[in-house]
């Protein structure tokens, strides 16, 4: 692994972490609560005695109208009831920009929350390297642990290939990407239900001639463009394609990388995604899918409920991202992004840490995931779940049957670089495919930018 150069955000965070960890930075001598001073309990006793211990908790769940958010909010209240000796200050925010702003401020102050959801936008490696988040590998290996333990779900939190031992977080949510097919629309036109990309290519022109977009992709959303590129890559070249991006530097003129860019561009040029993909957000594409203007929808798993509620949902089949006929061995690779995981910011050896471990273990327990699956009526989880499957709709049932064949997983290829700035730049460049920019120009630009950010 080539050593990564820090970019603006990572540098500022790492510098602040180092400064705030020093004895003169304002934290207490023991480092309690990630640099926070020990607080007094309601009886005026210091938290270092036997009074109530206080924790800060940061998540993205604040909206009780959202089933997923309400579940985790209720679960937190349940923990409070069971642990009256632990007082939790919930500083959660839903908005992504507000979340990033709060995290940057807390980290710069050397006060990472005791337990917090750490998104892929946060440079987790820098936090781990600077001791701002705890190594939770001993917890995962303990006999009391019932939560996720499969190493494939810890790629965003395990930096052993970068010389840092341990695991620094555990995913509490998975996001998948799949294809939703309007089977009735195809059957009415005498077109076969596709199983491979070659099948999709074969039915594309008849659909386009009939005014129907073969594949709905919301290219206005930059990450969605990068997601499609990611899946094309691993379906064409397997997990070796992912490794190209995980090694810290990518030559965008690499023949395989160019092949994937060219394949993506060829689909755009043939009209696979329709003439307005660049101006369409996900809600535009989903609306067209329900109205029969889109035959196949490329969308994330958190839209299951909305798609199930569509008027044509009984005609919709859910399948994994299509494979290529000559690469059937890559059929069991799924896009499964552990876009969010819980981390511990308090310091081992403190009462705050012991309490944080209890909350961390509770929120990531087998019972939590079983009840979460029950609430959501299915989905993808980083461990096997048990719930009443009779409540599933046809779309979720299709998905669960398909996903049980999942062998290997990939997140966004750029997420493995641990560099939010370069990830956003790459997605922006990918988006320009939809406005006529050549793959050669994109490769040339990205290679130069990657050379600046990652030195060999």
**What order do the SSEs take from the amino end to the carboxyl end, as H and E?**
HHEHEHEHHEHHEHHHHEHEEHHHEHH
Q: Which geometry do the CA atoms define?
A: globular
Oligomeric state, counting identical vs distinct chains:
single chain
Number of strands: 9
Structural class: alpha/beta
Low-confidence stretches: 1-48
The helical percent reads 40-55%
Strand content: 5-15%
Question: How would you characterize the largest beta sheet?
Answer: 9 strands, mixed
Q: From the alpha carbons, calculate the radius of gyration and give it in angstroms.
A: 23 Å
End-to-end Cα distance: 9 Å
- The total count of helices amounts to 18
Report on this structure.
This protein is an alpha/beta fold. Helices cover 41% and strands 13% of the residues. The chain has helices spanning 8-20, 32-35, 67-82, 96-108, 124-129, 137-140, 183-188, 197-209, 222-237, 239-246, 255-269, 282-290, 304-308, 351-363, 366-376, 394-403, 420-431, 439-453; strands spanning 53-58, 86-90, 115-119, 170-182, 213-216, 294-300, 316-319, 333-344, 408-410. It starts with 7 loop residues before the first helix and ends with a helix. The model is unreliable at 1-48 (pLDDT under 50).
């Amino acid at each position: 692994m080539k050593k990564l150069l820090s970019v603006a955000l990572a540098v500022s965070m790492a510098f602040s972490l180092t400064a705030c960890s020093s004895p003169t930075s304002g934290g207490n001598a023991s480092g309690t609560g990630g640099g926070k001073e020990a607080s007094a309990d309601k009886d005026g006793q210091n938290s270092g005695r036997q009074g109530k211990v206080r924790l800060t908790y940061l998540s993205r769940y604040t909206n009780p109208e959202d089933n997923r958010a309400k579940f985790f909010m209720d679960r937190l209240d349940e923990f409070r009831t069971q642990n009256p000796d632990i007082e939790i200050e919930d500083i959660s925010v839903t908005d992504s920009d507000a979340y990033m702003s709060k995290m940057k401020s807390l980290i710069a102050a050397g006060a990472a929350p005791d337990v917090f959801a750490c998104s892929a936008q946060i440079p987790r490696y820098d936090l781990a390297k600077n001791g701002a988040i705890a190594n939770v590998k001993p917890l995962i290996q303990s006999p009391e642990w019932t939560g996720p333990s499969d190493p494939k779900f810890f790629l965003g939190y395990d930096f052993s290939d970068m010389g840092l031992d341990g695991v620094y977080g555990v995913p509490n949510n998975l996001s998948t990407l799949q294809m939703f097919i309007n089977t009735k629309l195809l059957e009415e036109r005498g077109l076969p239900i596709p199983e491979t990309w070659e099948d999709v290519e074969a039915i594309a022109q008849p659909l386009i001639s009939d005014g129907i977009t073969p594949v709905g992709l919301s290219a206005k959303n930059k990450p969605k463009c990068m997601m499609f590129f990611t899946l094309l890559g691993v379906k064409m070249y397997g997990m070796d394609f992912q490794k190209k991006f995980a090694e810290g530097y990518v030559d965008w003129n690499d023949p395989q990388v160019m092949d994937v860019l060219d394949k993506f561009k060829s689909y755009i040029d043939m009209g696979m995604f329709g003439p307005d993909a660049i101006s369409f957000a996900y809600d535009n594409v989903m609306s067209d899918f329900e109205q029969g203007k889109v035959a196949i929808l490329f969308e994330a798993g958190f839209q299951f409920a909305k798609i199930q509620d569509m008027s044509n949902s009984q005609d919709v089949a859910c399948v994994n991202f299509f494979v290529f006929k000559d690469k059937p061995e890559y059929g069991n690779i799924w896009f499964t992004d552990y876009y969010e995981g819980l981390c511990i910011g308090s310091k081992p050896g403190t009462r705050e840490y012991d309490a944080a471990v209890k909350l961390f273990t509770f929120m990531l327990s087998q019972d939590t995931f079983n009840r979460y699956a029950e609430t959501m009526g299915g989905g993808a989880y980083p461990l096997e779940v048990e719930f009443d499957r009779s409540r599933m709709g046809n779309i979720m049932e299709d998905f669960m049957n398909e996903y049980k064949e999942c062998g290997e997983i990939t997140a966004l290829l750029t997420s493995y670089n641990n560099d939010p700035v370069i990830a956003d730049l790459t997605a922006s460049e990918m988006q320009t495919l939809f406005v006529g920019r050549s793959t050669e120009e994109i490769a040339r630009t990205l290679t130069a930018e990657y050379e600046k950010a990652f030195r060999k």
